[in-house]
Amino acid sequence: MKNQESSNKGVNYSPWEKAFDKILTPFEEFIHRQTTSSLLLMATATIALVMANTGWSELYFHFIHTPIGFNFGSYGIEKSLQHWVNDGLMALFFFVVGLELKREILVGELASPRNAMLPIMAAIGGMTVPGLFYYTINPGGDASMGWGIPMATDIAFAIGALALLANRVPKTLITFLVALAIVDDLGAVVVIALFYTEQIVFQALVFAGVVLVVLVAMNLSGIRQPVPYFLLGLLMWVFLLKSGVHATLAGVLTAFTIPAKPKYDPCRFSDKVKQLMVSFDASHHPDKDIMTNEELRAVVQTLENGVHKVETPLQRLEHSMHMPVAFLVIPVFAFINAGIPLNFSEMGETLMHPVTLGVLTGLVLGKFIGIVGMCWLTLKLGMGQLPAGTKFSQIAGVSLLAGIGFTMSIFIAELGFVGQAENLLMAKTGILVASAVAGIVGYVWLLLVSEKINQT
After folding, report:
1. Tell me, what DSSP letter sits at residue 62?
2. What are the DSSP calls for 275-337, one per residue?
């Protein structure tokens, strides 16, 4: 006991700070944040639903449609709060998606062709088959524009549900779901760019292309500070907003230009840290705290600068941006968009509406059939391999969880059904019901087919 007390001497703990003693890998931290984000997402979506279906409904809808704008001389933009969130704030979400995708391609599950093939093929099946399910039910008219809605997977909700089974499923199964969801997000970005784009204004699109070229040139010339990338990314967002191409794509394009090489290699960093620690020990005086010890403060600041240089700008930005996006941007999006007025007396008719039915069958059945079918075919042809320690029955369970489409599905619904209030309402209802069904059935499935892993 005394040894423990002596080892803690000089350490000032706040009640929550001992959690920092546990060293987490970047992937473990990513999973933890996605799990926490999914709980917050569920809470904000529930609040929005309650407000939209109680006496608060008028206040809620007045709030989300509040007009907000600004002017610079003759140039001005005015949109509702909902549009600012969907077109503007969500660009940060797409920026983080782009960072995650680039990391996965460079060093993650998608870096090895052998490992990448199964989640890539699973994602392709999980996008095409749900789209076909929807289009079969809604082959024409305005409703047909919703075919992209069931193609998407909500990474936070899906990983959050799978993380609840962490003591029963191997970590490689979670990695498979992450890779699948990230490829799915890329597919959704391509679909938005190609099929959910308004009339193109080529002059603005050319200007956006010029900005992208400048961003690439900055990367190649070794510019590592994030501020220039953010400023030019914002400029590209404005041009894309005016071009007709959905402006949130600026987030993905900017993310792909962020440098992925560190300034210090690990060996050089290790040498520098050892030298600095000698200076740290020499500068430390027990009778002086760090606030009054300038030499000690200088060493600590130099250590911090060195840590930033041994990290790549890509991983540093992904780490710093993930928390505000997961805990602010996505919950705000959920609150603004999940407020669906429900008429329970007409719920039977609502669920049988072609749009609702298309979304439901696409997310629940289409995702399951598409992912399982493509995985089976890929394995049968010898093009890929199961993640280590997993069973095909667990892949089937993950395919059900992939039917949780919430964030990206609602985003695509907002694009596809502009000015179509009834179809948008049906689509959102289908997304909520399908996501709940997919999450519950997928969780129970995995609970039944997975045995508890021995932690010893």
Report:
1. H
2. HHHHHHHHH--TTS-TTT-HHHHHHHHHHHHHHHHHS-HHHHHHHHHHHHIIIIIHHHHHHHH
The letter for the amino acid at 62 is: H
- Which amino acid type is present at position 326? A
Averaged pLDDT, 212-236: 93
| Listed residue (222, 216, 228) closest to 309, CA to CA | 222
Of 195-209, 287-301, 408-422, the one with minimum mean pLDDT is 287-301
**Domain 25-66+80-197+246-261+312-449 sits in CATH 1.20.1530.10:** yes
Query: Could you give the residue ranges of the DSSP H alpha helices within 196-225?
Result: 202-220
Residues of the chain with CATH 1.20.1530.10: 25-66+80-197+246-261+312-449
* Amino acid (one-letter) located at 95: F
Query: Residue 244: is it exposed, middle or buried by C-beta count within 10 angstroms (0-12/13-18/19+)?
Result: middle
3-state SS, residue 414: helix
Reported as a single tens digit per residue, the pLDDT across 278-335 is 777 777 776 666 666 677 777 777 777 666 666 788 888 888 888 888 888 888 988 9
> Quick one: which of 340, 450, 439 has its CA closest to 39?
439
CB atoms within 10 A of CB 337: 24
340 close to 428: Cβ distance less than 8 angstroms: yes
User: Residue by residue, what is the 3-state secondary structure of 344-362?
Assistant: HHHHHHHHHCHHHHHHHHH
- Burial (CB < 10 A; 0-12, 13-18, 19+), residue 126, is buried
* Percent of the chain residues past pLDDT 70, beyond the cut: 86
List the structure tokens of 102. 């680039």
Locate 124 and state its tokens: 């392709």
H or E segment and range at residue 380: helix 367-380
Tokens of 197: 């784009």
137: alpha, beta or left? (left if phi > 0; alpha if psi -120 to 50):
alpha
Q: Cβ-count burial of 319 within 10 angstroms (0-12 exposed, 13-18 middle, 19+ buried)?
A: middle
Amino acid identity for residue 54 in this structure: T
